[in-house]
Specification:
This protein has about 250 residues and is mainly α. It has helices at about 1-10, 25-45, 55-60, 70-100, 100-110, 115-125, 160-165, 200-220, and strands at about 130-135, 140, 150, 155-160, 225, 245. The chain has a domain at about 70-130 and about 180-245: Cytochrome P450 (Cytochrome p450). The longest helix has about 30 residues, at about 70-100. It binds protoporphyrin IX containing FE. Protoporphyrin IX containing FE binds near residues 83, 90, 129, 192 and 204.
């Protein structure tokens, strides 16, 4: 199943080649294949439940348990992208930032207590999710000034996380990657805000903190080794395809 998730994500991601163009036919057939695999697995877990999320979803007794497999496909697609590409992207982009800022990396190696603030700074500086999108339910001004543009009901509104994380009124020094920020430095919006705030933020933070603490301990002399190659980003998710290093 892990291999199927990986090939599904690769087909959906639109990063083949350098232009980010997605092969729509391949993406559609990957979706059909993935949903088929989810269905098979759900049936197997219904027959023989195990200690896993899928078993809980098809058999459990809590709220939302016993979901129809069609709904589960959508949820697992969401998790395959939301919980996978994002954290993978953050790990590569964050490592690259630290390699590009050797003084900051040296500080992390000297004092691993800096890992959490390094993780927050990499998420701010190079957010894996570039924007969120909302649809206006009613006519609504975008801002408080009298000159603010007005979104009409039904308009799609794109909210740039990358730009918000460098808003000069909030982050006066926002174009610098600095892992030790003064107390009171505002937090980024890389996990979104409000009702749809990332459900996996705590897990992602745990994974990234564990990863960078382990690299600092086990490979303190890590260096870039050659060409990073074309980015793997599309307009929505930013990540790297390769990050060659020597340890
Ligand atoms: C560094 C890693 C991650 C980043 C940068 C990230 C970013 C985001 C952002 C910006 C949103 C808000 C989308 C919106 O407002 O429309 C979001 C929502 C969400 N994320 Fe994450 N995410 C990460 C990791 C994860 C992980 C590990 C999981 C699950 C295991 C996850 C599951 C979700 C889900 C289910 C939502 C939808 C929440 C809702 O609509 O109520 N994310 N994420």
């Amino acid at each position: 199943m892990t291999g199927r998730v990986r090939s599904f994500v690769a087909a959906m991601d639109g990063s083949k080649g350098s232009g980010g163009d997605r092969d729509e036919a391949a993406a559609a057939s990957a979706t059909v294949e993935f949903l088929g695999a989810v269905h098979e697995l759900a049936m197997a877990r219904k027959r023989e439940p195990g200690p896993d999320l899928m078993s809980a979803m098809v058999t459990g007794s809590g709220e939302g348990a016993g979901l129809a497999t069609e709904r589960m496909g959508g949820i697992l697609i969401q998790l395959a992208i939301a919980g996978n590409e994002t954290t993978r992207g953050a790990a590569g982009l964050g490592m690259r930032l630290l390699l590009d800022h050797p003084d900051e990396w040296a500080a992390v190696v000297r004092d691993p207590a800096l890992v959490p603030s390094a993780v927050e700074e990499m998420l701010r500086f190079r957010p894996p999710v570039q924007y969120t999108r909302r649809t206006a339910a009613v006519d609504a001004p975008l801002g408080t000034g009298s000159e603010s543009p007005v979104a009409a009901a039904g308009d799609a509104i794109y909210l740039s996380i990358a730009a918000a994380n460098r808003d000069p009124e909030v982050f006066p020094d926002g174009d610098r990657f600095v892992i030790e920020r003064p107390a009171g430095w505002r937090t980024h919006v890389s996990f979104g805000v409000g009702a749809h705030f990332c459900l996996g933020a705590a897990l992602a933070r745990l994974e990234l903190n564990s990863l960078f603490a382990a690299v600092a301990e086990l490979a303190p002399r890590i260096r870039l080794a050659g060409n990073i190659g074309p980015g793997k980003s599309n307009q929505f998710i930013d990540s790297l395809s390769h990050l060659p290093v020597t340890l």
